[in-house]
């Protein structure tokens, strides 16, 4: 994989999530992108069960454990604005052992699933973001496979994204800000997904609690 | 994709559609991420030690008994981390990195409470979780709230015989914390360990290990040593 940009596509006015996804995928197919199966990214939230003695700063800190179909035997564990650990799938077993210290908040599990497309050197993944049974939004991932240096390909990526996202093509993702000339890694993609999924989770939680 | 997976996906998509008030075919999922890993793996362990002067004859014997492979040596730096809760015993994790092969992944290990078992079981058994990780493991554990308890360097030889792993190594302490540049041997002997990692309930393995240990006598006496008794 190369430099990857993950962003949100707003739901088109008067359309449902699924309809907007269909409009996007149709545009991609018209461009000449080929369908290449499906993809899946999920994110589980863990919170510290009890604050350790004399360690009050730990309280309220959330840890995220993520999986991606692009690397199905790996597991990504990360903190907001913190390090991202890449581990093998046994990390999930460790989290079970750690349940006295870190609790999985099951209701907060959020995932994005959808179709994976290839267009020349680009991989495009259009996903429906869902929390439990409810669709919450749309994620768009664009991977420019031949390049691992952000500065060398960002302009090209923006141009490509504009071709099917129009004015919704994103600005420079925040993880890129200190990565201009350094090597891009898969962990950076997961950080972007974590930020996007968190944003979508928060966007929806507001109005829902308002109705109640 | 199994039928159950397909069914689950179909159900999921129906629920999404129900919420949107719109129907669409379930997306076929060709690559489901594996989540869960391998639950309930046990390590069967026998331990012993030899004095430095007997090392060569033990290695000679092991070369003869073990699988024909390149004689391996290793030099690892192990850090033991503790996570303390409000009550109960702290949670211990071991992070290991290879010093002689620095590009290898780091190794994170959880070891459960050792079970001595009765006389019919010939090896110490403990639950274990082995995880290969990226090199920012230490930073990540500190972020999780773990604190470094102690660290050491293990340097020695590794052999294999079937599923058994045999390590003969010396433990060194670090003269300056965090720096593996200056180390000092802890003793004038080498630790010898025979271990097998297998799914729970396979006690036959301990029989096989005992037979192997018998063949190493009198060079080294391998026993199941209760760590609680040692402390």
From TrEMBL, chain A:
GO biological process: regulation of transcription by RNA polymerase II
Pfam families, sorted: Med20
Any GO CC annotation of this UniProt entry: mediator complex
Description of how the protein assembles with itself and partners: Component of the Mediator complex.
Coiled coil residues, start to end: none
UniProt entry keywords in alphabetical sequence: Activator, Nucleus, Transcription, Transcription regulation
Intracellular or extracellular location(s): Nucleus
Similarity annotation: Belongs to the Mediator complex subunit 20 family.
Record has Transcription regulation as a keyword: yes
GO molecular function ontology, one term from the record: transcription coactivator activity
Protein name as it appears in the record: Mediator of RNA polymerase II transcription subunit 20
Cell inner membrane in keyword set: no
Organism: Pleurodeles waltl
Primary localisation category: nucleus
Summary of the function given for this chain in its UniProt record: Component of the Mediator complex, a coactivator involved in the regulated transcription of nearly all RNA polymerase II-dependent genes. Mediator functions as a bridge to convey information from gene-specific regulatory proteins to the basal RNA polymerase II transcription machinery. Mediator is recruited to promoters by direct interactions with regulatory proteins and serves as a scaffold for the assembly of a functional preinitiation complex with RNA polymerase II and the general transcription factors.
From TrEMBL, chain B:
MF GO annotations: transcription coregulator activity
Keywords: Activator, Nucleus, Transcription, Transcription regulation
InterPro entries tied to this protein: Mediator_Med18
Localization annotation: Nucleus
Purpose: Component of the Mediator complex, a coactivator involved in the regulated transcription of nearly all RNA polymerase II-dependent genes. Mediator functions as a bridge to convey information from gene-specific regulatory proteins to the basal RNA polymerase II transcription machinery. Mediator is recruited to promoters by direct interactions with regulatory proteins and serves as a scaffold for the assembly of a functional preinitiation complex with RNA polymerase II and the general transcription factors.
Family indicated by similarity: Belongs to the Mediator complex subunit 18 family.
Protein name: Mediator of RNA polymerase II transcription subunit 18
Source organism of the structure: Pleurodeles waltl
Lineage: Eukaryota, Metazoa, Chordata, Craniata, Vertebrata
Gene, per the UniProt record: MED18
């Amino acid at each position: 994989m190369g430099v990857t940009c993950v962003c949100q596509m707003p739901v088109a006015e008067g359309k449902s999530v699924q309809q907007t996804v269909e409009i996007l995928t149709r545009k991609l197919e018209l461009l000449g992108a080929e369908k290449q199966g499906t993809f899946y990214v999920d994110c589980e939230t863990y919170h510290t069960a009890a604050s350790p003695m004399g360690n009050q700063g730990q309280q309220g800190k959330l840890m995220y454990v993520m999986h991606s179909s692009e690397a199905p035997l790996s597991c990504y564990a990360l903190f907001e604005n913190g390090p991202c650990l890449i581990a093998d799938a046994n990390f999930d077993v460790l989290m079970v052992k750690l349940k006295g210290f870190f609790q999985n908040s099951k209701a907060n599990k959020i995932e994005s699933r959808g179709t994976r497309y290839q267009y020349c050197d680009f991989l495009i993944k259009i996903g429906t973001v869902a929390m439990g049974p409810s669709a919450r939004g749309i994620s768009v991932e664009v991977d420019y496979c031949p390049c691992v240096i952000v500065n060398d390909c960002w302009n090209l990526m923006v141009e490509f994204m504009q071709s099917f996202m129009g004015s919704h093509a994103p600005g420079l993702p925040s993880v890129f800000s200190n990565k201009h000339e350094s090597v891009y890694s898969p962990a950076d993609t997961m950080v972007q997904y974590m930020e996007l999924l968190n944003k979508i989770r928060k966007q929806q939680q507001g109005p829902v609690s308002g109705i109640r | 994709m199994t039928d159950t997976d397909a069914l689950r996906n179909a159900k999921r998509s129906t629920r999404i559609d129900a919420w949107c008030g719109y129907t669409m075919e379930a997306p076929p999922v060709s690559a489901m991420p594996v989540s869960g890993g391998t639950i309930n793996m046990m390590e069967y362990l026998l331990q012993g030690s030899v004095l430095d002067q007997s090392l060569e004859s033990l290695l000679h014997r092991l070369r003869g008994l073990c699988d024909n492979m390149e004689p391996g040596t290793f030099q690892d730096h192990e850090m033991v981390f503790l996570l303390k809760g409000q009550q109960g015993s702290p949670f211990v994790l071991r992070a290991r990195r290879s010093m002689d092969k620095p590009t290898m992944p780091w190794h994170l290990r959880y070891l459960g409470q050792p079970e001595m078992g009765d006389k019919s079981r010939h090896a110490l058994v403990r639950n274990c979780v082995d995880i290969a990780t990226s090199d920012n493991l230490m930073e990540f554990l500190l972020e999780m709230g773990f604190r470094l308890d102690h660290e050491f360097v293990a340097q020695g030889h590794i052999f294999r015989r079937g599923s058994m792993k045999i390590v003969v190594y010396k433990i060194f302490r670090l003269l300056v914390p965090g720096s593996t540049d200056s180390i000092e041997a802890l003793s004038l002997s080498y630790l010898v360990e025979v271990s097998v990692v297998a799914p729970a309930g396979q006690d036959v393995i301990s029989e096989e290990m005992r037979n192997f240990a018998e063949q190493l006598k009198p060079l080294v006496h391998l026993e199941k040593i209760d760590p609680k008794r040692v402390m």
